[in-house]
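Posting here for the record, re: adenosine-5'-diphosphate.
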Amino acid sequence: MSKKLATGTMTETTFVKPLSLAESKKKNYINIVKTHFNKKFGSDPSFYVRAPGRVNLIGEHIDYCGYAVFPMAIEQDILVAISLNGSNKINLTNVKESLYPDFTTSLDVLKIDSLNPKWYHYYLCGFLGMVEHASYDYLSSSSGLDIAVLGTVPPSAGLSSSSALVCAAALATMHAYSLSVSKLELASLSSKCERYIGTEGGGMDHAISVLAEPGSAKLIEFNPLQTTNVLLPEGAIFVIANSCVEINKAATSHYNIRVVECRLATQILAKACGLNVTEVSKLKDVQEFANIPVDQMEKKVKEVLHENPYSRTEVCQILELSDSEFETTLLSANTKFLQEFKLYQRALHVYQEASRVWRFKEICEKKSETSLLMLGQLMTESHASCRDLYECSHPDLDELVQLCLKAGALGSRLTGAGWGGCTVSLVPFEKVDNFLVDLKKNYYSKHFRLQELLDTAIFPTKPGGGAVIYED
Ligand code: ADP
Ligand code: NG1
Ligand code: MG
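Prediction output follows.
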């Protein structure tokens, strides 16, 4: 694990803050989770942890290919109230009990069922990641924990509720057992341990949830993990709108299929470039080892890959693998059944999206009269690429993006993994009120089932802070 410090203006290195410093809205939520904890366990929690969700402004499905992404933390978060209980049991309860029922397990039989993921498995990812990191030795038969959870990140909506839960669980475990882990280590290990749930995800969500600082978005680079604060241009605001199509990434195979397609495109491109395929695991590695600028990778993709889907047999032939070698080395549990792979389209999206991220950052830094227009255009191009090349959109999301643009957004795109979830739109300040009215009328009123969700489905957002431990 890299020990390199985050670059930029990382000012705070400690997670702990006095509870009295929590802002008043947060204190209200803390009181709700405290009351729930008290009702379930008959005492007050020892401390609280918050970890925020995030909105990715640009750079979709490229973190697991090694490329930099551009998210910011949002106000909505996962709150955890926790105490050691002196037994060998972990008792988990959730304020939204009807959605997320109580769960109890002994410390010696912890298990994450990736075939049937439940809410508490995400918590256990964070717990296990932390205890494995510190080695199990110090866990005793009295290391049990009582835990209450309250989440305000809309779930399964591309705003990273899952990773907020995993990060909060890892941080709560760290503090409960008096372990010392740096912010950068926590970000890396939370991203590794969310993979226990079965998704072969990248590191964006955990990095921003842990490392975010109020007031700026972050460019996040990987290998080694490092972050740079970027101030967003003035005059416009990012507005999130939820299509209200829910998609659970661990319970479906869409996400891992894309990871596999990128992996296969990597191998075939590496072979065609004469690289040692065993040294190359991500699309970014091909670009770097072949020493080709990222904006010229489009030409290479068009030279090497064909547009028609690749059959499993063809991929095995090109990579000189038997079918069973192919399955064991390149596929995952929920992608073993795959017979066809769209490699041209996925690789093209990744390289073009990676270039868009750097252009986005440069525009933010240069600040000109046309900055907002150029940022908006990049966002809309990113959505088109997610829809057409990466095929991770959804008809309702496409409709919502069009409505956002019609309502005055300078740019709009899906955010997060896609296949449902939210859009993020860049809206000039003076147009925000009309934008909200138009969207409510044209999207939310039309879809009757969404009426009751209106209050939480559409909201302006600004860059928030990262994970915190609150103590009395
Ligand atoms: P997202 O885009 O929100 O990260 P995922 O499909 O990755 O979507 O994760 C959603 C899952 O995270 C939910 O099905 C649930 O298991 C868990 N989750 C999200 N919010 C909460 C919450 N408030 N309490 C408990 N579990 C939650
Ligand atoms: P969401 O939609 O929050 O589950 C996922 C991945 C990210 C990234 C985006 C797409 C996890 C935990 N998160 O986010 O790493 O790949 O999709 O850009 O796997
Ligand atoms: Mg998630």
